[in-house]
């Protein structure tokens, strides 16, 4: 991890693949270029703290100069960089022979070479493309920093939220129902509003390579609102350097809203977009995942940047993403995702600092703060890109031809869900990497509800999303798929379609195991969301005498107010699906455990990761199927309930006490 600030820089190539034809690849090996920033920072253990404290002090010029990280090699590098800029300004930038493969063969596509060897080669190499200068942090303002924008006034400017009047509540309700967010407020905010600059101050001082690849921004939409979609487009044009934006490619996933037809066709012809917007319209509903693949095939840019249809880009968001890909084309990058409120359209950070992507074992996306792992990750600057095991999925950029080398998204994934994990596991296990880029910020409207329905997955009792998760688990998780099925016991043994192509792809291209991925890349995930133990028994917990089911009532979301109890059995799993595992934990679906402290009747919900402080002989649950009791301390204390109040608690076990008798029941869960 600590070998390079900006990734291995194994091999760089640029390719033009208009019409899907590979025109050329360049592989330039550089022997003599060490990763400069590393050597600059490796001098003293205190350098990272001194540089960050310098940066925090406003303009950040420490006594050692910019960020206290200079030496001769750095100056040399910067001079080289300035020269390139000067040449570009003078209109005579040296054109490198991009399309010529100086090695005489194309390593990425050379089928004679065993792919395992190929990937191994790459990961051990320190090759760096001669024509790409990695980003450099300097005192001066960064080369792609936009000039200060003229001051703007109006609702929502600078990312402020906009409120409706009380008498507009009916508009609000209608908008939410139709779009899943407050379209009334969105309509009142300028399509060209400027959002807050939430970047770390350091970000303004990064200098990026001047020969960055261009990108197609691919946006899939389905039944999207007008102003949110158009603001996304305006924002891309307003914040991206012209030469880097090859096009904005809209993929209409079979919408039927009138404003998304001719009105949109006409709008995108506006000269302000220089003919750079195209629309592809699906003939049937394909879902987000397949629509992205459709967009990727049609795109003309060297890099694919996928955004959602309700985003706003922060200042200078694009070059930091493209730079990582330029330095190492097997890098997938994600911007920092800011939150745009679905109520007020206020633009804010998610507020928890630098985080890495993670997941629990039924594939809920999680965020884990970077801070405790700072040194293990080899980080020096708060504003530098850092590796993340997985991505949230909505916003990402990657080299277009690399996307296809990775096999794209599994075409068996339907509509939405799981593709973020698939591509994350794939890129790591097949020799690439995934990075989060703090200096690139893009806001995204988080919907409260999805305003359209999902089709059925075609498999009885399995939702589209679960079917996707199963495919990902079956192809990528190896022995860890037991953890997935332990968490989602209803899915075990269900069919998930034909995965033979994905399995074959992995065999041919991906030398790493999931165990390697978890231990080397997702080590924090392993710590924060450890794999669950095997289930001993699972199902609804039904009272023997009343046909009521144990129900968390959402207590895991709101432990101070909600209390669990007995409710009518709904047969839908979720809050009523419990399992006792070999560690003696009583677990509800999303990783929360039910604990009974010694000597009290009260039950407590806590994340199962809190197991160290909770788990002991006295808090281990077991089920006695003869006596039908859920008990602690070898049948000393029992789960009990009050039939009148429906409350649930723990009391001393009493033979034959009917309120202590429960059965695990799974026959009617759908
Ligand atoms: C993108 O960059 C490639 C390589 O420099 C170039 O050939 C192509 O014309 C560019 N595309 C657009 C639309 O600017
Ligand atoms: C699964 O797909 C592969 C490749 O597309 C095909 O060869 C194979 O026959 C399929 N298997 C089944 C059971 O349909």
Automatic annotation (TrEMBL):
<dbReference type="GO" id="GO:0000139">
    <property type="term" value="C:Golgi membrane"/>
</dbReference>
<dbReference type="GO" id="GO:0046872">
    <property type="term" value="F:metal ion binding"/>
</dbReference>
<dbReference type="InterPro" id="IPR000772">
    <property type="entry name" value="Ricin_B_lectin"/>
</dbReference>
<comment type="pathway">
    <text>Protein modification; protein glycosylation.</text>
</comment>
<keyword id="KW-0808">Transferase</keyword>
<feature type="compositionally biased region" description="Polar residues">
    <location>
        <begin position="102"/>
        <end position="113"/>
    </location>
</feature>
<keyword id="KW-0479">Metal-binding</keyword>
<feature type="region of interest" description="Disordered">
    <location>
        <begin position="42"/>
        <end position="64"/>
    </location>
</feature>
<keyword id="KW-0735">Signal-anchor</keyword>
<dbReference type="InterPro" id="IPR045885">
    <property type="entry name" value="GalNAc-T"/>
</dbReference>
<keyword id="KW-1133">Transmembrane helix</keyword>
<keyword id="KW-0333">Golgi apparatus</keyword>
<dbReference type="InterPro" id="IPR027791">
    <property type="entry name" value="Galactosyl_T_C"/>
</dbReference>
<keyword id="KW-0430">Lectin</keyword>
<feature type="domain" description="Ricin B lectin">
    <location>
        <begin position="535"/>
        <end position="665"/>
    </location>
</feature>
<keyword id="KW-0472">Membrane</keyword>
<protein>
    <recommendedName>
        <fullName>Polypeptide N-acetylgalactosaminyltransferase</fullName>
        <ecNumber>2.4.1.-</ecNumber>
    </recommendedName>
</protein>
<dbReference type="Pfam" id="PF00652">
    <property type="entry name" value="Ricin_B_lectin"/>
</dbReference>
<dbReference type="Pfam" id="PF02709">
    <property type="entry name" value="Glyco_transf_7C"/>
</dbReference>
<feature type="transmembrane region" description="Helical">
    <location>
        <begin position="21"/>
        <end position="40"/>
    </location>
</feature>
<dbReference type="InterPro" id="IPR029044">
    <property type="entry name" value="Nucleotide-diphossugar_trans"/>
</dbReference>
<keyword id="KW-1015">Disulfide bond</keyword>
<comment type="similarity">
    <text>Belongs to the glycosyltransferase 2 family. GalNAc-T subfamily.</text>
</comment>
<keyword id="KW-0812">Transmembrane</keyword>
<dbReference type="InterPro" id="IPR001173">
    <property type="entry name" value="Glyco_trans_2-like"/>
</dbReference>
<dbReference type="GO" id="GO:0004653">
    <property type="term" value="F:polypeptide N-acetylgalactosaminyltransferase activity"/>
</dbReference>
<dbReference type="Pfam" id="PF00535">
    <property type="entry name" value="Glycos_transf_2"/>
</dbReference>
<dbReference type="GO" id="GO:0006493">
    <property type="term" value="P:protein O-linked glycosylation"/>
</dbReference>
<dbReference type="GO" id="GO:0005794">
    <property type="term" value="C:Golgi apparatus"/>
</dbReference>
<keyword id="KW-0325">Glycoprotein</keyword>
<feature type="compositionally biased region" description="Low complexity">
    <location>
        <begin position="42"/>
        <end position="56"/>
    </location>
</feature>
<keyword id="KW-0328">Glycosyltransferase</keyword>
<feature type="region of interest" description="Disordered">
    <location>
        <begin position="102"/>
        <end position="152"/>
    </location>
</feature>
<keyword id="KW-0464">Manganese</keyword>
<dbReference type="InterPro" id="IPR035992">
    <property type="entry name" value="Ricin_B-like_lectins"/>
</dbReference>
<dbReference type="GO" id="GO:0030246">
    <property type="term" value="F:carbohydrate binding"/>
</dbReference>
């Amino acid at each position: 991890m600590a070998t390079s600030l900006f990734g291995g820089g194994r091999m760089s190539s640029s390719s033009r693949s208009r019409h899907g034809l590979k025109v050329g690849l360049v592989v330039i090996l550089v022997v003599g270029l060490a990763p400069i920033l590393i050597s600059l920072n490796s001098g003293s253990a205190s350098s990272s703290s001194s540089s960050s404290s310098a940066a925090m002090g406003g303009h950040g010029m420490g006594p050692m100069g910019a960020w206290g990280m200079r030496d001769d090699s750095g100056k040399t590098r910067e001079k080289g960089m300035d020269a390139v800029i000067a040449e570009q300004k003078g209109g005579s930038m040296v054109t490198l022979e991009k399309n010529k493969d100086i090695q005489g063969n194309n390593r990425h596509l050379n089928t004679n070479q065993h792919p395992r060897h190929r990937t191994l080669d790459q990961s051990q190499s320190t090759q760096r493309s001669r024509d790409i200068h990695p980003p450099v942090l300097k005192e001066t303002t960064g080369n792609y920093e936009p000039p200060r924008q003229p001051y703007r006034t109006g609702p929502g400017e600078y990312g402020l939220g906009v409120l409706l009047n009380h008498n507009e509540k009916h508009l609000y309700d209608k908008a939410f129902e139709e779009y899943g967010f407050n379209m009334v407020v969105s309509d009142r905010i300028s399509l060209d509003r400027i959002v807050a600059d939430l970047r770390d101050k350091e970000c303004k001082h990064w200098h990026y390579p001047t020969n960055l690849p261009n990108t197609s921004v691919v946006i899939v939409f389905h039944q999207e609102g007008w102003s949110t979609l158009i603001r996304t487009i305006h924002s891309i044009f307003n914040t991206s350097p012209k030469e880097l934006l090859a096009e904005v490619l809209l993929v209409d996933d079979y919408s039927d809203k009138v404003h998304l037809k001719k009105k949109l066709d006409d709008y995108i012809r506006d000269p302000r977009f220089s003919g750079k917007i195209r629309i592809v319209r699906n003939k049937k509903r394909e879902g987000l995942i397949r629509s992205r693949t459709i967009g990727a095939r049609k795109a003309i840019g060297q890099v694919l940047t996928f955004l959602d249809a309700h985003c706003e880009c922060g200042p200078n968001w694009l070059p930091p993403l493209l730079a990582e890909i330029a330095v190492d084309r097997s890098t997938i990058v994600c911007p920092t995702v800011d939150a745009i409120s679905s109520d007020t359209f206020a633009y804010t950070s998610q507020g928890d600092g630098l985080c890495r992507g993670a997941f629990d074992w039924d594939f809920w996306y999680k965020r884990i703060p970077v801070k405790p792992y700072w040194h293990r990750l080899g980080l020096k600057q708060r504003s530098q890109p850092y590796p993340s095991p997985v991505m949230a999925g909505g916003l990402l950029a990657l080299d277009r031809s690399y996307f296809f080398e990775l096999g794209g998204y599994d075409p068996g994934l339907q509509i939405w869900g799981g593709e973020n994990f698939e591509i994350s596991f794939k890129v790591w296990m097949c020799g690439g990497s995934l990075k989060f880029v703090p200096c690139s910020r893009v806001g995204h409207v988080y919907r409260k509800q999805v305003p359209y329905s999902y089709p059925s997955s075609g498999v009885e009792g399995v939702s589209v999303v679960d079917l996707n998760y199963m495919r990902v688990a079956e192809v990528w998780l190896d022995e860890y798929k037991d953890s997935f099925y332990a968490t989602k016991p209803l899915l075990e043994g269900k069919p998930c379609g034909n995965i033979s192509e994905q399995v074959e792809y992995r065999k041919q291209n991906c030398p790493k195991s999931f165990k390697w991925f978890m231990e080397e890349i997702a080590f924090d995930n392993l710590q924060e969301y450890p794999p669950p133990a095997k289930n001993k028994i699972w199902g609804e917990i039904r009272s023997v005498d009343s046909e009521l089911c144990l129900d968390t009532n959402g207590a895991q979301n709101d432990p101070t107010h909600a209390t669990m109890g007995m409710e009518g059995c709904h047969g839908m799993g979720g809050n009523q699906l419990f399992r006792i595992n070999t560690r003696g934990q009583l677990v509800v679906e999303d990783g929360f455990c039910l604990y009974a402290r010694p000597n009290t009747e009260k039950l407590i919900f806590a994340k199962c990761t809190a197991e160290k402080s909770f788990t002991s002989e006295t808090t281990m649950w077991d089920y006695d199927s003869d006596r039908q009791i859920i008990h602690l301390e070898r049948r000393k204390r029992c789960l009990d309930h009050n039939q009148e109040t429906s409350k649930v608690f723990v009391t001393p076990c009493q033979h034959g006490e009917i309120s202590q008798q429960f059965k695990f029941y799974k026959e009617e869960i759908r």
